[in-house]
Write a structure and sequence with these properties.
InterPro entries: Glyco_trans_1, Glyco_trans_4-like_N. With 370 residues, the chain is an alpha/beta fold. The protein is 39% helix and 17% strand. Helix 5 links the parallel strand 7 and strand 8 (170-172).
Length: 370
């Protein structure tokens, strides 16, 4: 079978070997051919693995819907792909383009909602706008899709069903594709109390985390947080650290070069903490748990489904004081290795050797039904 993917991720076109690349490294084995339509980029890569072809839009994102319709028709006329997988995200250019393309070629597609921006908490006015836009539009944009993919079992399905998407159309298909040969416990020295890997953006809640570190260090003055990532909030976060005497407590590591180095950074830490305001997963939470780290998280995405209070970590609300309380409570536990082992067991089912073939099979089912 042949697959057309309509994605918002153009990283593979730029030669980056991030999460999308590693997904394709396994996914391509299940298809005769994959074509990817993605936003404009400084493209250096046109083909991967011999039969995955990347097509970047020539124009700005506002015209992405037109590129999807036109390029999709051209590819269908030449390659006759069987099914489409469409990533949905505001302002919904992919959704509109897929809808228009389906009207022309009548091929089924899976609409993938990985992340409900602004839910359960919005970081700013833009996220609030996208939240209300999605709340209104998804009831219409999901209609032409054969199925709607969500990546957690409760938060996203509950939201969508309350806002006009039929339960029967919603399908839970995990998107955390863990390479358990990389993300596993290692016998290395623990150097950091806390670790977070994330884009340094508002919705990740990192300023709240720094405020929590400031509170928690009153009980543990030598508390350390390893912060892995880059983003638009970096200078603001660094300024907060400098102004609040946290330079010895917070280490800005930037992005690490490989997944192996990321796994090592997890293993050198005692606890993973996720302060996000809204997420679909997040994947990094599961990666750290696979490395045997107890987890602390806000109630976003998969976290409420995976974290059992006191057993493999703790959930908390979005206040810095609540975070600080859980940080100190977990660090005082004498059974952190046992808690971490329970965290590891909780994410075993996300092994990429199972989840990616399952993803491919679910898409193929739509083509066979058609």
């Amino acid at each position: 079978m042949k697959l057309l993917m309509i994605s918002g991720d153009n990283s593979v076109a730029q030669g980056k070997k991030g999460a999308f690349y590693h997904t394709l490294a396994e996914l391509h084995q299940h298809w005769e051919r994959i074509d990817i339509l993605c936003p404009r980029a400084a493209q250096t890569v046109n083909c991967l693995f011999g039969h995955v072809f990347i097509h970047c839009a020539p124009d700005a994102k506002i015209w992405q819907w037109r590129f999807i319709r036109q390029k999709g028709q051209e590819l269908f006329g030449r390659e006759r792909f069987d099914v489409m997988a469409v990533q949905s995200y505001p302002p919904f250019y992919n959704d509109l383009g897929a809808w228009l393309l389906k009207r022309k070629i009548n091929i089924p597609y899976l609409l993938e909602i990985h992340h409900i921006i602004g839910y359960p908490r919005a970081a700013d006015l833009k996220e609030r706008l996208y939240f209300w836009l999605g709340k209104f539009l998804w009831r219409f944009l999901t209609r032409p899709a054969a199925a709607v993919r969500v990546v957690n079992q409760k938060q996203a399905p509950d939201f969508l069903s309350r806002h006009g998407v039929p339960w029967g159309k919603i399908k839970y298909i995990p998107s955390a594709y863990l390479d358990l040969s990389v993300f596993q416990p290692r016998a290395v020295e623990k150097k950091y109390d806390l670790v977070l890997a994330a884009r340094l953006e508002k919705n990740k809640g990192i300023l709240n985390l720094l405020k929590a570190v400031k509170i928690a260090k009153k009980q543990k003055p030598n508390l350390t947080l390893l912060l892995i990532g880059e983003g638009g909030q970096k200078l603001k976060l660094q300024k907060y650290v400098a102004n609040n005497n946290l330079a010895a407590n917070v280490i800005f590591a930037g992005w690490v070069a490989t997944v192996q180095k990321l796994a090592l950074a997890y293993n050198r830490s005692r606890i993973f903490i996720n302060p996000s305001l809204n997420e679909g997963g997040p994947r990094v939470l599961l990666e750290a748990m696979a490395c045997g780290l107890p987890a602390l998280s806000t109630k976003v995405g998969l976290a409420p489904e995976l974290i059992k209070d006191g057993e493999n970590g703790f959930l908390f609300d979005w206040s810095p004081r609540a975070m600080a309380d859980k940080i100190n409570k977990l660090l005082k536990r004498s059974d952190l290795p046992e808690i971490g082992e329970r965290a590891r067991l909780a994410v075993r089912s996300f092994d990429r050797q199972k989840t990616i073939p399952n993803y491919a099979q679910e898409i193929k089912k739509l083509a066979l039904k058609n």
